[in-house]
Write a structure and sequence with these properties.
The protein is of the alpha+beta class and 98 residues long. It has helices at residues 8-21, 24-32, 41-48, 52-64, 86-97; strands at 39-40, 68-73, 76-81. The chain has one domain (7-97): Orthogonal Bundle (Arc Repressor Mutant, subunit A). The chain has a 3-stranded antiparallel β-sheet. A hairpin with a 2-residue loop joins strand 2 and strand 3. The protein is globular and about 45 Å long.
């Protein structure tokens, strides 16, 4: 499917996802969630060395815009990429900015 084949609703959704990704901390979060990894808030905030509340805020935005999904396991909620293709966007960003 090509961009010209997308409906205005699909384009709007894609733009919102890209806007959500377009933040340094969120790109870093997505880097850690690459390769089908599932991490909880505590693991992510420790990896990034930022406050847990800040981590939760960024995860909430990414989930709300359809970039991430979550799964509850016991007392933890694990976050992961909703679509495998999102990893391609992150890979492209890493290559283009390096």
């Amino acid at each position: 499917m090509k961009i010209k084949d997308l409906s205005s609703e699909q384009l709007e959704r894609a733009a919102n996802m890209l806007k959500a990704i377009a933040h340094p901390m969120r790109i870093a979060i997505l880097n850690y969630l690459d390769d089908r990894k599932k991490l909880n808030v505590t693991e992510i905030h420790e990896l990034l060395n930022i406050e847990q509340s800040t981590t939760s805020h960024h995860l909430g935005i990414l989930k709300d815009k359809g970039v991430l999904s979550s799964q509850r396991q016991g007392k933890y909620t694990y976050y992961y990429l909703k679509y495998d293709n999102i990893a391609n966007i992150i890979e492209c960003v890493n290559k283009c900015s390096g």
